[in-house]
Amino acid sequence: MVGGGQLARMTHEAGIPLGIRFKLLSDTPKDSAALVAGDVVVGDYRDLDTLRDFARGCDVIAFDHEHVPVEHLRALEAAGVPVRPGPAALLHAHDKGVMRERLTELGVPCPRHRIVADPADVTRFAREGAGFPVILKTVRGGYDGKGVWVVRDEAGAAEPFRAGVPVLAEEKVDFRRELAANVVRSPSGQAVAYPVVESIQVNGVCDTVIAPAPDLSPALALAAQELALKVAKELDVVGHLAVELFETTDGRILVNELAMRPHNSGHWTQDGAVTSQFANHVRAVLDLPLGDPRPRAKWTVMSNVLGGDYPDMYQAYLHCMARDPGLKIHMYGKDVKPGRKVGHVNTYGDDLADVRERARHAADYLRGTITE
Amino acid sequence: MVGGGQLARMTHEAGIPLGIRFKLLSDTPKDSAALVAGDVVVGDYRDLDTLRDFARGCDVIAFDHEHVPVEHLRALEAAGVPVRPGPAALLHAHDKGVMRERLTELGVPCPRHRIVADPADVTRFAREGAGFPVILKTVRGGYDGKGVWVVRDEAGAAEPFRAGVPVLAEEKVDFRRELAANVVRSPSGQAVAYPVVESIQVNGVCDTVIAPAPDLSPALALAAQELALKVAKELDVVGHLAVELFETTDGRILVNELAMRPHNSGHWTQDGAVTSQFANHVRAVLDLPLGDPRPRAKWTVMSNVLGGDYPDMYQAYLHCMARDPGLKIHMYGKDVKPGRKVGHVNTYGDDLADVRERARHAADYLRGTITE
């Protein structure tokens, strides 16, 4: 796996029971996954020779993030290395412009969008029907609210163009909430769909995920799963695909983002599903039959733990574990920096309000937001 | 953790979500746990200097097996290293003679037993009431049926005395089945009890574990849990304690063996309990509050996978995973040798016959006993 973040860490964890020999290409020996894996190469994923050397002896290459240049992936693939998902699929996760164009061709509902050339073009886009405010995104490199701007008028639209990366304009969707439809697909075409979840963002960062999404109409849930399965098939995705969706106030679903790897909206599956997204991602990239994606509990809630005031979380563990013996803590071994995702917690049970409160309390206590 | 076997491997796996920095002392770099852990020291656990060097920078030392000499553990403890469980407790897992003596003092029911000096003394032991056949065990070094003999008369009792290790004689108990009562205890005295399980042995090796033990009377289940909690407390065990029990044909329970570490009879907890034995062992040795030991399914069955004819199990994975998407495979990364424990499978569900059949089929298929 290329990239040593928490997704690689948890993929390694999920591969251990399968006897997988996990080899990691990590930026530093202190990256989240590098701390817990045995076979770690430290190197720069932007360097093709490093990637080629790393790929030797790997049966398949998978990814912790979307930042490996697509031309490098094409070179590896041309050299006979199984790259999963392949560059033809990953391009849609790397480039939001390509993603929007392709989804629209496929008839997959998206917000109004087009590539815009400059601030004046943003105004034209708004006048074509989307109206202000307009969402501007650099087509590459954004995540967790970075590389995204909400602009209210032409005067406010200058900054996104400064990076020299193409800029995608999108209408600001009037949405009721955000959902995610997560599916896993293998090279031989088997696919499984997890229950559609609700994803609650705070300051542009995922805060809480509720599985399944409460009060979601069965028809819309099915439509979201079918949409995600269609995208996975048509884009030839291998492994986990997260389709982030808006549920609009008028009852439609629109695609917000795609991620072709394990995803924050699927972390609940570690404790809440028969087979976790990480285990199924491993099975998919190795072309093994996929595991049962069904939930094991009526409700599972995931809340992210952001870095706060505690450099050492041992004291917080004492409180959280004693308060809630059913709490599932997943920390990433990262140095704590304010606002950085350093872990998450999962809770599950029959009473949604209780399950949410337990996750909320633990995440806030681990961060240091509450201390009682 | 000292020892690089599968118990260390699965303990590392369980420690990853807690952000534990896991350091391993392994006999070789190819041991089961050494293949998947990041911080591996290769060395001989029988050498005190190696242990002292290894212990530097460890907050606590725990164990994959019972083979570290007790005098080394005492030396480490005297040097201020937290050894968990400590040598005073571990002595009872190292030496079956000491264990029997102590349990008898505590009033814990055991088979008739005493240390015997020679074959003639075995006959005297039999005549004191146990009768032939008599079970002879070397007090140290046995596992999985090794170091255990069933002798029918004095003439057959010579071999156990040849090793020069004291020999314990025990009556051959007329038992209905074998049970295991697994508990976890922390240094501060918190303890949790898992449901009592039935353990089915084949050729002296654990084959299948059923959780909870079917048709076990609630009174006997409670007695078994109380017995295990008492033993853990009185022997000052820290971490997981497995108490292997005989359920006699006349409805009593007698202690067979003790193990003070995660144990084969607790592997079902990885997929069948809220908190696995490995996660609770980690929590206990770090003196963190313990997790909920309750089952997540009506029935969970574990079957061991023994080495068979397949050096490469990929083809067997294709069949087993396709046949049963809910199957949980746990392989240890070991080279396959006939009869060696190389992994286990867990299955769970509401119908015990079905859950058993799924585990049986998968274990047999992975071994190569069946190929349809």
TrEMBL record, chains A, B:
Any one Gene Ontology cellular component term annotated for this protein: cytosol
Binding site residues for ATP: K96, K137, E170, E171, K172, V173, E178, N256, E257
MF terms (GO), sorted A to Z: 5-(carboxyamino)imidazole ribonucleotide synthase activity; ATP binding; metal ion binding; phosphoribosylaminoimidazole carboxylase activity
Pfam entry (one): ATP-grasp
Class of this enzyme: ligase
Its biological purpose: Catalyzes the ATP-dependent conversion of 5-aminoimidazole ribonucleotide (AIR) and HCO(3)(-) to N5-carboxyaminoimidazole ribonucleotide (N5-CAIR). Catalyzes the ATP-dependent conversion of 5-aminoimidazole ribonucleotide (AIR) and HCO(3)- to N5-carboxyaminoimidazole ribonucleotide (N5-CAIR).
HAMAP family according to UniProt: PurK
Protein name: N5-carboxyaminoimidazole ribonucleotide synthase
Species whose genome carries this gene: Streptomyces smaragdinus
Organism taxonomic ancestry: Bacteria, Bacillati, Actinomycetota, Actinomycetes, Kitasatosporales
Gene that specifies this protein: purK
